[in-house]
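#onboarding

Welcome to the new folks! Below is a worked example of what a typical request in this channel looks like: someone posts a single protein sequence, and someone else replies with the predicted structure as tokens. Don't worry about understanding the tokens yet, we'll cover that in week two.

Example request:
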Amino acid sequence: MWAVPRSASTAFEQMVAQRGDLAVMSEPFSAAYYDGPEALSQRFDCSDPEATFSSVRQLVLDRAAAEPVFVKDMACHVLPALDDTLINACTHTLLVRDPAWSLPSMARQWPDFTADEAGFEPLAEVAARLDESGADVVVVDTADLRRDPDALVEAWCEAVGLNFEPGALQWDEGMAAGLGAMAAVACHHRNKHRFPAARTRATDR
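Example response:
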């Protein structure tokens, strides 16, 4: 799943983790984007000399060869690593959200976010590459997900070849065991037990 920020992507991966039949890799390419020798952002004061885009891509491919995997990442993170090998190895979902909702939400978290981090241009480039390759793509709109999560997730499961598990749409407080540290950091502010319901823009906090 390749997403724009503030699009309920972490809630979606929480749902996938609740299923129990897929390993979840949460934003693995962010290590290369922010921390590696090819980093495209200096937002965080940390470094990982081994976190190249190609090494993270291989990590994902190796994990997927060993067991069924769900990967969630931001489009800007994965774009530099999105070669034919990764395209052909994945079933792709694009998670989109109206920028009138996502950008104000992101500004509250990162007032200095860049256009690349906002994600819409990278997501368009990801979509173009997938289209050129002829890959099958499932597009999910956050508005539809929040309006009727049960119906949306059931349709998504059918589209990607998974059984629908209604119980996975509800969970106890905290992150599922299958989610990594990056997800925990991304979600430290969230205290939801189900997909957030649709709200009017005036109260979208």
